[in-house]
Specification:
Layout lengths: L1 E13 L2 E15 L5 E6 L1 H7 L5 E6 L4 E7 L2 E8 L3 E8 L2 E17 L2 E12 L2 E14 L1
Antiparallel strand pairs: 1-2, 1-10, 2-3, 3-4, 4-5, 5-6, 6-7, 7-8, 8-9, 9-10
């Protein structure tokens, strides 16, 4: 288990209505017995915005280029991103449960034991109606 600095840059939206976000946080990175990597951190921006319970975020990067993002707390979700696959995923905001479709467009995983970079691109839909196209770049550096 290593202490790391995580930088997340994201763009999401649809057509000309796009938003961007960038933040840095400290977290923990560990390698599993299957050679996958797991990042864990407190999502301070969500904490600040919601004024509620702490939100813990866990990202699992599998060597077969499958990514699972789980959040717990006032905002809970579990999404799975796989290139070329649409997964139904759970999302809960303010006690409202949603099931969304997540279609993985691309995953580039260059994460190693000393950190690295991951790029994700995926579409989010509700009942096959597009809601958002998301692009995320995650950079991980040892502290």
């Amino acid at each position: 288990m290593k202490k790391v600095l995580i930088t997340i840059r994201g763009i999401n939206g649809i057509d000309s209505e796009k938003d961007s976000v960038e933040f840095m946080t400290k977290g923990i990175m560990r390698k599993t017995a299957e050679d996958d990597f797991i990042l864990s951190y407190d999502d301070n921006q969500i904490l600040k915005d919601s004024g509620g319970k702490p939100v813990k975020t866990r990202l699992k990067f599998e060597k077969n280029n499958r990514v699972t993002i789980e959040r717990g707390g006032d905002l809970s979700s579990k999404i799975v991103i796989e290139k070329g696959v649409r997964n139904s995923c759970f999302y809960n905001v303010s006690s409202v449960d949603l099931t969304l479709g997540i279609y993985g467009k691309s995953i580039r995983n260059e994460l190693g034991e000393n950190g690295g970079r991951i790029n994700l691109s995926y579409l989010v839909d509700s009942n096959l109606t597009p809601i958002s196209e998301n692009k995320i770049e995650i950079t991980v550096k040892e502290v």
